[in-house]
Amino acid sequence: xSTYASDIAFTQTVKAIQARKGSRGAYAxxxxxxxxxxxxxxxxxAFIEAQxxxxxxTANAEGQPYIQHRGGPAGFLQVLDEHTIGLADFVGNRxxxxxxxxxxxxxxxxFLMDYAHQQRIKIWGEARVIEDDPELAARLMPxxxxxxxxxxxxxxxxxxxANCPKHIPQLIAAGDVANALAERDSRIQALEAELHSLRVKxxxxxxSRV
Length: 210
Description:
By secondary structure, this protein is α+β, with helices and mostly antiparallel strands. Helices cover 38% and strands 29% of the residues.
């Protein structure tokens, strides 16, 4: 029986290693103070639905792990309720490793990394594939996105944790850089036009005094 939400990752073996390496005390205090969360709070919902690139980890019946990238426009991951995350599974290379793994073992992990703000969220849970619900697939499809939903994946959240930003490189998306540069250039043009107008007025004022 699990006592704390973090027991999903902190097995007895993990706790023994933490004790041997000196970190068990800190994590024990974390557990007793409330520890990891099991409900998708509004702040987490906003973080999840802002992501454009995530990693979904599964394992087959033999325990062989697999990590697959999932990407799309912001909102391709949707929080359906305080325990459920859904996404349209776009047609890809048709290897179906994730689908096969989930058919054998529903345990799954979602890893979210926001490089721009150096934040990461780890989500443990169980996932299932839904192949015969076109209405749900249409609901989860990002508007005007050039992709086709092959099926739907729903993740039921068991626990989640936020990591510190240590060692996360700060990377900015190309689109965000382009928007920032366009905004800068627009501001420069406005300032140059304002300066030109002031110079014209100054010359006119000087000419009227002659």
